[in-house]
Amino acid sequence: MVRVGIVGIGFMGMIHYLAWQRVRGAKLVAISTRDKAKLSGDWRGIKGNFGPAGTQMDLARVRRYAHVAELLADADVDLVDICLPPALHARVARAAFAAGKHVLCEKPIALTLPDADAMRRAAERVKRLLLVAHVLPFFPEFAAALKLVQSGRYGALLGGHFKRIISDPLWIKDFYDPRTVGGPVVDLHIHDAHFIRLLAGMPQSVSSTGRLRGDVVEFVNSQFHYGDGGPTITATGGVIRQQGRPFTHGFEIYLERATLVYDFAAFVTEPARTPLTVLSADGKVTQPTLGSDDPLDVFAAQLGEAARSIKKNEPSAVLSGDLACDALRLCQRETESVRKGKPVRVG
Question: pLDDT tens-digit profile of 87-110?
C-alpha cells in the first residue's frame, strides 16, 4: 500500500484528493494547506475549468497539517503529492527527498531548468523516485493514439498537429507571472510539448511565432524540426480573450497508413466534439471504443501509474522527471524563438 500526502489544496489538489479515492493499492493519509478553512474541510471556494466544483469535504480520516514540514515528518507518508504553485515545486520536492519520501509533482516540474535538474539530482542522491504529473497521456483519446503510434500498426509517424487553447483563466492569480505560475506556454502548452516528446522524441530545433503578454508568451505557433527523414510536427497553444470557449484541444496525427483525428471544444453552451477517428489507407473511417472520459477516472489512471511505479520502485515511462525536464526545455526554447524571431536549437 502506497500512503500518500497531498501538499497544497487548490483546484488540482482537490482533483488529486478525489482521484486518489479511486486508486487501488494507494491510500490518502494526509494533506497540508495553510488555509484554515480548507483544513476544516470547507473547499467551497475552489474553482477550475473542468470536473466537480468545490464542496464541503469530510476530512475526519485524514491527518491535516498547516505546515509542509509537519507532513514531511509523518512516517506514514511514502509519497508526497505536490499540488502547489510551480514556483514552490523545487523547494518542497527537495525537502521531501531529504525526508526520505518519493515525490509526485504537478506539472510543470519547475519554472527553470536549473531547478528541475536540482530536483532530479536530489532524487538520485537518496534513491527515491521523482514523478511528474503530466496527465495528457492518460486521457482516452491521447492514450489510444499513443498506443497506435507506438504499436507500428499503421506504419511510421510522418507528422502531426496539436492544439490547446483556453479563454483567459481569470480565476488563477499570477497566471502571467513567469516567477510564480509561468504563463500559457509553461502552464498550458507544456501538455502538448510533453506528449510530442513522448510520441516523437526530442527535436533538433524549434521555430516559434507568438504574441507576448508582459514577460510571457500568451499565444504560440511552433514547428518542431527533426531533421531529414524525421516527422513534421506543429503545435498551437495559448489564451484567447473570448470567454465563450473556455477550453479546446485536439490533434491530427499522420502515419504511413492512417490519420488519427480528435477535437474537443468546451463552449459555454454545448460542447463540440470529433471523437477519436481513424482514417485508414483502405478508405475506412472508424472510431475506436475508448475508456471512461470522466476526468476523475483519467486522473485516477495517472495516479495509479504513480502508485505502480512506487510499489515496484522503478521509473515510469510516462511520468518520469527526465521527460518532464525535456518538456520544460522545449517550452523554454519555444519562448526564446518567439523573442528572437528565429529558429532555436533545442540542445
Answer: 999 999 999 999 999 999 999 999
> Of 53, 52, 49, 51, which Cα lies nearest the Cα of 243?
49
Task: Please give the Cα distance from 274 to 178 (Å, whole number).
Answer: 34
Which strands form 130-133's sheet, in the order they lie side by side? 63-65, 26-32, 2-7, 79-82, 102-106, 130-133
The phi and psi torsions of 155 (rounded to 5 degrees) equal 85, -170
CATH of domain 2-134+299-313: 3.40.50.720
Across 20-56, b (16+ Cβ under 10 Å) vs e yields: beebeebbbbbbbbeeeebbeebbeebebeebeebee
Asked if residue 67 lies in contact with residue 33, where contact means CB atoms within 8 angstroms, the answer is no
Triad 5, 136, 191: Cα angle to 5°: 100
| DSSP state string for 30-97 | EEE-S-HHHHTTB-TT---SSSPPP-B---TTSEEESSHHHHHT-TT--EEEE-S-GGGHHHHHHHHH
Assign domain 136-292+327-345 one CATH number from 3.40.50.80, 3.10.450.50, 3.30.360.10, 3.30.1360.200.
3.30.360.10
Give the model confidence (pLDDT) of 251-288 as tens digits: 999 999 999 999 999 998 899 999 999 999 999 999 99
